[in-house]
Amino acid sequence: MLTELNRITPLGLRYMLLSAFGFSLMAACVKAVSQYDIPVLEIVAARAIVSLVISYLDVKRKRISLWGEHKTLLIARGAAGFVALLCGYFAMTTLPLAEATMLKHLSPIFTALMALLFLKEQIQRSTMLCIVLSIIGLVIMVKPDLIFSSTVDELPLISVIVALFGSLVAAVAYVIVRRLSQVEDSSVIIFYFPLIALPISVVLLGDDFVMPGFEALILLLLVGIFTQIGQVGLTKALQHEVAGKATAYSYVQVLFALILGWALFSEVPTFWTFAGGGFIISGALINVLWKR
After folding, report:
1. Does the pLDDT value for residue 247 go beyond 80?
2. How does DSSP assign 11-25, residue by residue?
3. pTM here?
4. Contacts of 67 (CB under 8 A, 6+ apart)
5. Residues 6 or more apart whose Cβ sits within 8 Å of residue 143
6. Distance between CA atoms of 291 and 111, rounded to whole angstroms?
7. Which residue, 235, 241, 186, is CA-closest to 68?
8. What is the largest CA-CA distance in the chain?
9. Integer Cα distance of 17 and 19 in angstroms
10. What is the DSSP string of 50-71?
11. 31-40, 163-172, 220-229, 281-290: which has the highest mean pLDDT?
């Protein structure tokens, strides 16, 4: 029976589903805790505390140096990760979950461009097609009146801009990680994110700190826990499946976001969400599955 299960649903697929579900629950908790008037910077700080403890213990378990050898790049990775996370959380708290999740999945476009500029990697035809489809999908989802002469509800532009900027900075962080992964242990790279994010978020938060009640505190803890589940699932999926297929499986997160947004926040996606999202996800799947 186990062999049959592995044939129908490979282990890599199951880990990727776990990862996508974990990240979707994290996004739902971020949106939920923001309704208790907890500032986004405070949510980032809480997430960083949980990540700092877990990653510190992981580095100590490996008996390696906390600080690494390439400190400038490690600090840059942490700073880029902080900005990307801040923008992502802002988008989650101000946009419907499904739309915020779809915008986050535009990061492959920026990653390809960053890799071209800094790693001198060629942009493949599949990536070019992904970029074209993603731009069309973005316009349909965000500003459908530019294409269709009708009055429709639009997404808040500032939230979309912040989400896109977050995807851009996430691409920067990803390129830095790719460079660091050749010379630093993965646990050290991970450790530097909360190490940088926590003090910056606390300083920027300043007097805006809000003492969370019991329910808000539980949600803040769940943000960190579900993030860790998502990261572990992603790591395991990449160990058991080729990167292209594993990344393709991750787009089920959009489906989870649709369901959670409807069930928890009464968010009903519009036709334009499905239409634009279809272009974005199609482009992304072409990019990861058609490597020519």
Report:
1. no
2. HHHHHHHHHHHHHHH
3. 0.83
4. 74, 188
5. 154
6. 15
7. 186
8. 62
9. 5
10. HHHHHHHHHHHHHT--SS-S-H
11. 31-40
Angstrom distances, CA of residue 188 to CA of 169, 185, 230, 240: 20, 5, 19, 23
Q: What is the pLDDT, as a whole number, of residue 99?
A: 85
Burial classification of residue 84, based on how many CB atoms lie within 10 Å of its CB (0-12 exposed, 13-18 middle, 19 or more buried): buried
Is the pLDDT reported for residue 78 higher than 50? yes
The whole-number pLDDT of residue 151 equals 46
Tokens representing residue 146 in the block: 């530019």
What is the distance between the terminal CA atoms of the chain, rounded to a whole angstrom?
37
Position 242: which residue type?
A: V
**What pLDDT does residue 27 have?**
94
Query: What span, in angstroms and rounded, lies between the C-alpha atoms of 10 and 3?
Result: 10
Does the structure show a pLDDT above 90 at 236? Answer: no
What type of residue is 163?
A
